[in-house]
Amino acid sequence: MGRALVRGAMNVLDENIIASQRRQLQRWRIPFRQIGHELANQGIKDPQIIPLLRRLKQPTFFTRDYDYHDPKLCDQSYCLAWLNVRPDQAASFIRRFLRHSVFRTHRQRLGTVVRIHPEGIECWRRSPSEPIQIKW
To answer: Residue 37, Cβ neighbours under 10 Å: how many?
Structure first.
């Protein structure tokens, strides 16, 4: 993969999170690693992301890619978070999600596939077949 893997619980940003949003997260002191920067090589293909996440400790993966919004991808080793917001709103919604009482800790997030959007959070866990709707 090219880059060393960090072994602590972490927030992982997909390459599609724009630089201004990365800088905002840094200003807010929200820790993260980004694909193509601190993790893996730039241009890593989607099929390689899930195996990468499984090698990390308790990752929450933030992406703007709809392909990760699939309940079949639920796995206890990670959280997949699809940011269904404008590119320039990603940092605000990441912070809002990380501060939400239902998702505040890594342990609370693990095993979920979520859609983060202006009205709230849509969440799949392994057992229910229908998503859980959570308001902000």
So the answer is: 14
